[in-house]
Write a sequence for this structure.
């Protein structure tokens, strides 16, 4: 792990070079989550696959920016990070909030997007929303900073996952400052991909949990219908399925990336 400066922003980055000549997979995290959240998936993937993880500005080891960055600006940061690491193209996986950056990157940089994996995610401000009680809990980073709160109130968010699995995933991540979390919320609420999904031409895997209360499963079907080269894969878990069952869903991801 180390820091990379991209257009004046210092990003905390984890880069596994993998085998020479292979396309990297960029892992873009959910709201509030530092790059350590992806550790279970990293351990399950082919060790020869190059991997890039990074903390967005204001989260984990990346300093807070002076002003909130929109999704377009965050996608531009990702492009600059690939330049700094010497990659012309990449596969991109976006988890939850990170699916916004992944979709925006594919729209802004179709020539740099090889394959796209959209996991437990939707189309931003224009999507079928979760229940109000779930949305209210997503407006605060408290579940990252307060284990008791996560166990009591977070149970509604993480339906379909065992409490032990959720605790194991969250044990790795950094505490979250409210201002950084707020900046991420602002980026999401001012963005949508819904009208432009037909213009995302990259082969796309839409991976969704049947028991996910945060992103109702109908959103996966909408994305799968509107994106011209999308395949929808449904599993029986919840919002964090990719991280709580990485062996099962890591194989799905590997098959998609290699075919």
């Amino acid at each position: 792990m180390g820091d990379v400066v991209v257009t004046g922003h210092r990003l905390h980055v984890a880069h596994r070079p993998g085998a020479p000549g292979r396309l990297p997979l960029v892992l873009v995290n959910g709201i509030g989550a530092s790059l350590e959240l992806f550790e279970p998936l990293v351990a399950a993937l082919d060790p020869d696959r190059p991997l890039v993880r990074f903390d967005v500005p204001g989260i984990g080891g990346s300093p807070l920016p002076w002003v909130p960055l929109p999704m377009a600006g965050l996608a531009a940061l990702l492009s600059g990070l690939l330049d700094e690491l010497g990659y012309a193209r990449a596969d991109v996986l976006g988890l939850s909030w990170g699916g916004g950056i992944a979709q925006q990157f594919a729209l802004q940089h179709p020539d740099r997007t090889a394959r796209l994996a959209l996991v437990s995610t939707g189309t931003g401000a224009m999507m079928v929303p979760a229940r109000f009680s779930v949305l209210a809990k997503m407006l605060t980073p408290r579940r990252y900073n307060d284990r008791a709160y996560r166990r009591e109130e977070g149970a509604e968010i993480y339906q379909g996952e065992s409490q032990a699995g959720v605790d194991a995933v969250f044990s790795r991540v950094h505490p979250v400052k409210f201002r950084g979390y707020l900046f991420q919320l602002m980026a999401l609420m001012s963005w949508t991909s819904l009208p432009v999904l037909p213009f995302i031409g990259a082969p796309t895997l839409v991976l969704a949990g049947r028991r996910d209360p945060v992103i109702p499963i109908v959103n996966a079907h909408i994305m799968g219908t509107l994106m011209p080269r999308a395949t929808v894969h449904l599993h029986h878990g919840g919002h964090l399925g990719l991280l709580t069952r990485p062996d099962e869903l890591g194989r799905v991801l590997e098959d998609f990336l290699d075919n």
User: Anything to note?
Assistant: The radius of gyration is 17 Å. Residues 71-85 form the longest helix (15 residues).
